[in-house]
Design brief:
The chain is mainly alpha-helical. 57% of the residues lie in helices and 2% in strands. The chain is elongated, with a radius of gyration of 26 Å. Keywords: Lyase.
Length: 473
């Protein structure tokens, strides 16, 4: 796969990293980088260039001609925490960094990109560590990368290598793919709850959403119509509780925010975000290292997913309540006073608490560093970590809903063929085949683990066949 500095998407980048596809620097990109390296060397002879002929941070006003300046910069900036990044993040981060360098804005020679490509293709990834990145460049881990590259990074190319959020972008791309696939399976779980509660499908009528055409809401409603149209069940109520009635209105914004994150990441993984930027025969000192667009996109996504999780727990509450399900309390079966899925609600709210705590905006953080020269940060790396944690907790919430909805459908005596000609039947069949049919009081931990795996399988199928909602096989 040729890396050219353009055309890389978050999904494509993740796929390249996971498949360990061999990569190379494109010839046009190689020429751009070579010309840029010559240009910045000439410019530095007649004017100060930040980080090349000056110190960094508050030392920006200190000129230096020390040939060891770059080596000392890498050594000092390789100060990190002690927790290593996972290998998949490192691999993806290196791939993104090469693609950024291919734009030619850094002033680095193509040999630097070739050296990183060598690490990727040989599979000899350096151990890079968290710590020191606050959304103004992944300085620490990229300094470790510079040291791992050896002599190919000379005294003049240290800072340009560090001037990137590549590791943060790698974590963001992985979180984006996870969020996109998870959001895609929420309608499947919601449709099963709709069946179990005999919901009123009027809420998904196209005319309703044409009257308020929020993009994500319209898409969710269309998806739900595709799953539920033709469902041969009489609605139990004229007006359903919020978990059903506001389904599209709550999931819709999350769909929009997933799209927004994907668009923002696509820009940054193909961006020449270095400071200074080498542009033809000049250098432009700038703030493109600031990851605020990424951090805000992550914060917005997490806030929207918190509401998705909250509405899921409200459906669980409806499912265990005979007033809504017309079934036994807590969907119990067997001896009197059995607890059924009573504990599922507790597990769901425990997971919801984790969603709530990780939904707090990372961009509310503040920082004043380097003698006041740097008095703002986006905290995008922290936002990326919080997003990964939230998605895991959200998966737990949805697993609780899936187990509860399928149990309610079983208690109601419904079979997948009873739902024809709607498209939700095959998904129910898939869930019934996977989940145990024992309705006596017992631990449901294994059921939840199966449900989590089922959500992953369904998400993968949505990625492979995004237009197919009728058959999970």
């Amino acid at each position: 796969m040729e890396l050219s500095g353009s055309g890389l998407t978050p999904l494509g980048a993740v796929a390249l990293g996971q498949r360990r596809t061999a990569v190379r620097l494109g010839e046009t990109a190689r020429k751009r980088m070579a010309e840029s390296a010559v240009a910045v060397a000439e410019i530095a002879q007649r004017q100060p260039v930040y980080g090349r002929t000056t110190g960094v941070g508050a030392n920006r006003d200190v000129l230096t001609a020390d040939p060891e300046h770059g080596a000392r910069l890498l050594a000092s900036h390789s100060t990190t925490g002690t927790t290593a990044y996972p290998a998949d993040v490192v691999r993806l981060g290196l791939l993104i960094r090469v693609n950024q360098l291919a734009t030619g804005g850094s002033g680095l020679a193509p040999e630097v990109a070739d050296a990183i490509v060598g690490l990727l293709n040989e599979g000899t990834l350096p151990e890079l560590h968290r710590g020191g990145a606050i959304g103004t460049g992944d300085l620490g881990p990229l300094a470790e990368l510079g040291l791992a590259l050896g002599d190919v990074v000379d005294g003049t190319s240290a800072l340009p290598l560090l001037s990137s959020n590549a590791l943060t972008l790698a974590e963001c791309c992985l979180a984006y793919v996870e969020a996109a696939t998870l959001v895609d399976v929420v309608p499947l779980v919601g449709a099963l709850s709709h069946v179990a509660l005999r919901g009123n499908a009027e809420v998904y009528d196209e005319r309703v959403h044409q009257a308020r055409p929020q993009p994500g809401q319209v898409r969710v409603a269309e998806r739900m119509r595709g799953l539920l149209d033709g469902l041969p069940l009489r609605p139990a109520r004229v007006q359903d509780p919020f978990g059903l009635r506001a389904f599209a209105q709550v999931l819709g914004p999350a769909v929009d925010h997933v799209d927004a994150l994907g668009n923002t990441l696509t820009i940054d993984v193909n961006a020449a975000a270095e400071n200074p930027l080498v542009a033809g025969d000049t250098v432009l000192h700038n703030g493109n290292w600031h990851a605020m667009p990424i951090a805000l996109a992550l914060d917005s996504l997490r806030l929207s997913l918190h509401s998705v999780a909250t509405l899921s727990t409200s459906r669980v509450a409806n499912l265990v309540d005979p007033d809504f399900s017309s079934l036994s309390r807590f969907l119990a079966s067997g001896a009197e006073a059995s607890s059924g899925v009573m504990m599922i609600e507790y597990v769901a709210h425990d997971a919801l608490a984790a969603v709530r705590s990780t939904a707090q905006p990372a961009t509310l953080g503040t920082a004043t560093l380097s003698r006041g020269a740097e008095h703002h940060a986006s905290f995008a790396p922290q936002a990326a970590v919080l997003t990964t944690q939230l998605l895991d907790a959200l998966r737990e919430v949805l697993a609780c809903e899936l187990v509860t909805a399928v149990r309610a459908i079983r208690l109601a005596g419904l079979e997948p063929e009873d739902l024809a000609p709607s498209a939700v039947g095959p998904w129910l069949a898939d869930a019934i085949a996977a989940l145990p049919d024992d309705l006596e009081d017992r631990s449901l931990r294994d059921d939840l683990e199966i449900a989590r795996g089922l959500l992953t399988q369904w998400g993968d199928r949505q990625v492979e066949h995004p237009a197919e909602t009728a058959d999970p096989s």
